[in-house]
Amino acid sequence: MTTGSANPGFARGRRLRSTPALRRLTAQTRVAPADLVLPVFVKQDIAEPVPIGSMPGVVQHSLDSLRKAAHEAAEAGIGGLMLFGIPAEKDAVGSQADAADGIVNVALQQLRADLGDELVLMADLCLCEYTDHGHCGVVTPAGVVDNDPTLDRYAAVAIAQAQAGAHLVAPSGMMDGQVAAIRAGLDSAAFTEVPILAYAAKYASGFYGPFREAAEGAPQFGDRSTYQMDPPNADEALREVAQDLAEGADAVMVKPALPYLDIVRRVADAVQVPVSAYQVSGEYAMVEAAAANGWVDRERAILETLVAIRRAGAGQVLTYWAVEAARWLARG
User: Fold this and answer.
1) 320 is in an annotated binding site
2) Which family does it belong to (predicted)?
3) Is 54 annotated as contributing to ligand binding?
4) Which residue among 59, 212, 225, 304 has its CA within the 20 to 30 Å range from the CA of 319?
5) 68 catalytic, yes or no?
6) Cα 116 from Cα 111, distance rounded (Å)
7) Secondary structure of residue 312 in the 3-state scheme
8) Quick one: which of 259, 159, 134 has its CA closest to 202?
9) What dotted CATH number matches 31-330?
10) Distance between alpha carbon 327 and the CA centroid of its chain, in Å?
């Protein structure tokens, strides 16, 4: 005997799920192409793109292939690009990061000339890809990353990136005081309008492995646990975010995304600035590997992860699927 239909208090959640149109109409969280940012790698002195074995579908771009990819990204309607560079030569202080002919700075000049303001051109601001030791800053003879001299390098890199045409700089090195140093450097060089997107809560994660192949920036000794955040710590993330905002950050980021959705939520609830989350290389590689083995529906899994990150509170999502996902979303 069924009596549910006679009971006015009987809840039927299925009523709003019966058709795709109803589900679209009542969806609480949405992902739009403009919410997505594509991280890209550009390598000096290569003529053709180089595939990244651990990240199927992702490449180290040449300057020419990057320009083509940027046009495709603009046509797909995504929000922006985040540029990472791999120089031909590395040294102890990462000289190519702020060299006028450094690979990212040349790429920024070309992309800005090609696209103007059609996409937000973001420059990752760190030294790990540019140093011969693979750490994110200047290293002492004892092998310790020296925080304060590194800040001077970051300020110089920020100025070079702004001069090259970056709309936004994104410091990712997790040095104490980095945002204040960069803001002071930009302001002193008359780049007061260039915003800072701080990698404010960046964890010492096990999900960065494929990125280190892509960016050729793995540490040659030790690891980054002394300056990136310890995964068990949540309250510390709020302190790091608050500090970066006090130093002049215009927006903040949580990295990685999926293993730290609780952090994304807490940061989004705590601040009144844009919050980004970076769906990192290990997250990408896991889904691609599962899909390649037929264990998950690739498109559904990718879109579900993006919805999860947005649902947690991120306004913008950095993802290697940005262009492909944007095309799916436009398809409806």
Assistant:
1) yes
2) Belongs to the ALAD family.
3) no
4) 225
5) no
6) 7
7) helix
8) 259
9) 3.20.20.70
10) 20
CA separation (Å) from 110 to 71, 117, 159? 12, 13, 17
d(CA 222, CA 70): 35
Q: Report the C-alpha gap between 63 and 110 in whole angstroms.
A: 8
Tokens of 193: 């309008």
Integer Cα distance of 92 and 120 in angstroms: 31
Measured distance CA(304)–CA(248) in Å, rounded: 34
| Separation CA 32–CA 331 (nearest Å) | 11
Per the listing, tokens 């940005």 go with: 322
Annotated binding residue 212: yes
User: For strand 59-61 and strand 50-51, is the pairing parallel, antiparallel, or unpaired?
Assistant: antiparallel
Catalytic choice (43, 68, 90, 202) = 202
- Domains of the chain, residue spans: 31-330
In the numeric block, the tokens 């192409």 are attached to: 33
**Residue 240 labeled ligand binder:** yes
What does the pLDDT look like over 206-222, one tens digit per residue? 999 888 888 777 766 55
Cα dihedral 230→236→242→248 (10° resolution): -20
Say which of 43, 68, 90, 255 is annotated catalytic: 255
* Strand runs labelled E in the chain: 36-43, 50-51, 59-61, 80-86, 120-125, 168-171, 197-202, 251-255, 275-278, 316-318
Which residue shows structure tokens 């060299």? Answer: 99
Assess contact for 86 and 142: CB atoms under 8 A.
no
pLDDT confidence tier of residue 5, bands split at 50, 70 and 90: low
